[in-house]
Amino acid sequence: MTTGYRYEKLPVYGGGMLFVIANAISVWYGSYYLWFLWLVPAVLYLAFFSFSTLFMAVVFLTPLSLELSMFAGGLPFDASLPTEPVIVFMMLLIFFRLLHSGSFNRDILFHPVSLAILFYLVWIFITTITSTMPVVSVKFFLVRLWFIVVFYFLAIRIFSSRANIRTFLWCYIIALLAVVGYTLYNHAGYGLEAQRVAHRLVRPFYNDHTAYGAVLAMFIPVLAVFVFGGKSRPSGFRPFGGKSDKSGQSHLSGRQLIPWDLNSLIKGTFPPGWFAAFLLAVFTAALVFSYSRAAWLSLVAALIVWLLIRLRIKFTTIVTFAIFAGLLIFMLRHDLVREMERNTQDSSARFHEHVRSITNITSDASNLERINRWKAALAMFREKPLLGWGPGTYMFQYATFQYSYDRTVISTNFGDWGDAHSEYLGPLSESGLLGMSSVLVIFSLTLVTGFRLLKRLAGRRDRLLVTGVLLGLVTYMVHGTLNNFLHSDKAAVPFWGFTAILVAMDLYRKKSPPDHPKKVPEK
Questions:
Q1: How far apart are the first and last CA of the chain?
Q2: What is the pLDDT of residue 162?
Q3: pTM of the predicted model, to two decimals?
């Protein structure tokens, strides 16, 4: 054994010793919280010897993570446990590796989606410097940074193996299934009264039923794809700058600080179609009982996009139609508002009435409060149109921009029940016009990448996978007009992960033939 190899194990051995000492101290003083430090040596071991396994473990734990405020109230910050501390550690280790190697994959870095994301981060950093509340903005920037570094840039490397893409999806789905079971059990206890307390029934895993509904909507198209691809066996494909064996697993040449590849937890085939169909039925029922109207609308939008894909309508035609529809809605906005004002149907446990309440802007408190928050965001933008008030500052600054006639029975001055309720207007008020534009560019280039893949990929299995992931992203982009959740690991992990899947597939398509003529034998 070489001296260098022994030194590589020192963090693991050191973590193990600290774990033993911490447990001895906790037993001596009768404080058992330190027992959770068993995670430290486990994380250190995976970080240095199976980094992609650590990545998948974090993905699996994300739906099950709990907020720090549940255990220690009164802190000036909050975090998801145990995932966010591990994500921060992973980001620091990635930066250390980059400094150590002095190189990065240029194909990943210069992909159009990556460039848009880098501009997004740079602009957040610039507006953090000019922020009205620098400390708040620094926290906001760091949260965005570690989610994007780990679940976009690192994920693209890990997704060089298609088996790892399936592992990522199923790690999240299986963990989310546990949350779905817990939530449906709570719903059963309340019966018809569940709608009134829907926001409480998802706790402690989610703060609000709308975030829960948004994540469910993202994975329903993926499960629908697995239903149709259940008996398919994807072929292997080559990673970027590496070699692949007959199983399709990547092998990067040279000794590395971090082993990037994972021997897939799910080998050779998609899970059976009947199992995916069962999960699809369960997740659909959970989405219905989430009573999240925004999530329902987002899934309808994804269904429309799927129909357009099936009809083989060109992406440019879709964009032209969308622009035309937007202009038409803008020109008829006064007539549409008058029509919606006639609707007095409030939220209800009856589904048809709950659906009707979507357009109620007269008496539905939830809808009226969204409009109030949007108006406040626009007013903030008009005062600081170039640089905004600073990333993450909306909830602390919007109170003075509320008009008395827009306030509702649930209005507050402290950002309760969410902030700007929009992935578009939030950045507009906090980072100015370029802030919102950077988000729109990311979303647009991601859609362009997805539609381009559907047009150019030769394999049916690849097109199915891209379709599911693309439609999952569409649900969130539509949902983003009514809510914003990318500050939370629950939504950030699948969103940036789905984006990384499309970019990884795009880079693979550029580096290897569109399909493999020979079938890969199973081992």
A1: 32
A2: 85
A3: 0.83
